[in-house]
Design goal:
three-stranded antiparallel sheet, alpha+beta, homodimer, 11 helices, 340 residues, globular, Ribosomal Protein S8, Chain: A, domain 1, seven-stranded mixed sheet
């Protein structure tokens, strides 16, 4: 299950969330910070809702199991919703709605994450990058999939700027004093990401509201740790650990609406095809085109399904390290072929 | 019902959506562009979902009726979801989740609106300001309520800048050539609002995705007119009318999750109180404080519940005009007292 989630990220071009993270998950399992044999179970439910206890399992395993419960409830009564407590990082948010789309449902997935984002007017980290993902089935076209962190940008973009020594655009970050900064180091050294909208003039209160919504649905509703109390993803990032606990682990929220709970699925999907054609035809800036949500990931999927997934040397070394320690045979040439 | 929705807007300080709009609704009714006696009915349903045909009624009446169906379904099976076709402008999005909150539910409301917003990289109006509102019950504190247009700003802010002859901050609008502009006239003269995020560097693709999501849930799912085909709100704004129709009227989407579908409501509400205290205590910029979603509206509600709702002269003249035409007695002194 975990391999399927990670491979989906790599195939869809989201390198930051694929096997590049395997070593971090592996360390958490080795350190027994994550339960390798979780008893994932429903602790509260109605016909269309449930709360699931992830038993501190890998989010990559708890997530697919909980999402499946949401889809089963939707199949039975038209929509299904599952809040998850006591879980860990679940990979790309967009993986889960794709499971719903396969059954002609509109799927939703959210998760809270360890604090990185300052609220509008705030100057300290209080919320995670708290993504929202939604998948919508089409007819002849691939599904429309949106998958967005509710911060101005994901933390990965700051890390990349730092690695290559670049400055960042204005509106991404503040430093530890709360001052706007374009220096990635200044954010990483106790600063914070800004919410979607960047500043009050451009409505950063809206990004803050959306992030707060995700935090409430995933963590307050499920009984997980919310806001600044969400535990860190990796052992190495213990810097965000906090003494106070207000629940168990981090939280996810999954859901799906059956399209035919509203109108015949074929009718809906034909309209979605028309919707896609209409938006693709939008008059655009010179040299640009208007994309359909999910286009970049689909293009990567098409290319990588044929040519393979390029991995950086650092990731291959990480994989080799895991192989050596646990005794799984490792053939480096496979990776060299893929990386061409 | 309509009066309750409009009064809620005025009491909560959202003057643009209160009785200031009564004359526009009145004109639509007089012109028989809106059906004054709609047969609002369910045309498709499952235990937790339904599609409602608003029979071209006032959104201010169709909305509350459809939202009530969502709440009844949530009461029965844990969550309830209603898509609405063949309806009209429904007032403030935040009105509807407040009905859910009263029953210890988390409520959601969305609507599409006539086109004003360009997609990321686009240079023409394709989407409405498509708001998302969510209400969450607390224990000792008032509910947390978020209510946000998915554009960088609401059109009302452009109108205000135009009225007072001010320039706008960068990141709100483009002109009819698709160039960034700070001149409100340039937007109003065939330009467009930008999605939340403002530009690609600051993630306007995310605002576009959220607006697209609202468009799909409210209009494609219900069988209403989606995207650029959503009809205009007022008779006067016929400039956005289009020949092509892809459904009936505009669309809404309402829903609610029963809190006790996930965990005991008292437990949840106690955690929400702690959540509110925690976020209020965020370290903030000098002279600022971190707000809880819904704070500005609550402050207006407290003040106006005591001192009344200030109306501009133009609105009072509008009300007087309606009174004269339909023969309802009009006492101007009432308004003069309220406006002090």
């Amino acid at each position: 299950m975990a391999a399927d989630v990670l491979a989906a990220a790599d195939l869809r071009g989201i390198d930051s969330h694929g096997v590049a993270r395997l070593h971090a998950y592996y360390e958490l399992l080795q350190a027994k910070a994550i339960n390798p044999t979780p008893d994932v179970r429903i602790i509260h439910e109605t016909p269309s809702t449930a709360t699931v206890d992830g038993d501190n399992g890998l989010g990559l395993v708890v997530g697919p199991k909980a999402n499946k419960i949401a889809l089963e409830k939707a199949k039975a009564v038209g929509s299904g919703w599952v809040a998850v407590q006591n879980t860990n990082h679940y990979g790309i948010a967009g993986y889960y709605p794709l499971q719903a789309v396969e059954q002609d449902m509109i799927g939703v997935s959210m998760t809270n994450t360890t604090k990185l984002v300052a609220p509008c007017f705030g100057i300290e980290r209080m919320l995670g990058t708290n993504p929202i993902a939604v998948g919508v089935p089409c007819g002849k076209y691939p599904p429309v999939v949106l998958d967005l962190a509710t911060s101005a940008v994901a933390f990965g973009k700051v890390e990349i700027a730092n690695r290559v020594g670049a400055t960042m655009p204005e509106g991404w970050c503040i430093d530890k004093e709360g001052k706007p900064t374009t220096d990635p180091k200044a954010m990483m050294d106790g600063g914070a990401l800004l919410p979607l909208g960047s500043d009050r003039d451009r409505s950063s209160h809206k990004g803050y509201c959306l992030s707060a919504w995700v935090d409430i649905m995933t963590a307050v509703l499920s009984g997980a740790n919310w806001g600044p109390f969400a535990p860190p993803f990796t052992l190495r990032s213990g810097v965000n650990a906090t003494e106070k606990r207000v629940g168990k682990g981090i939280g996810h929220f999954f859901g799906a609406w059956r399209v035919d709970g509203f109108r015949p699925a074929d009718e809906f999907k034909a309209q979605m095809d028309d919707w896609v054609d209409t938006f693709r035809a939008t008059k655009a800036e010179p040299g640009k085109k208007v994309l359909i949500p999910g286009d970049p990931e689909r293009e990567a999927l098409e290319e990588r399904s044929v040519s393979g997934v390029p991995l950086t040397e650092a990731v291959v070394v990480d994989l080799e390290d895991i192989s050596k320690t646990i005794g799984v045979p490792f053939d480096r040439t496979v990776f060299e072929v893929d990386a061409e």
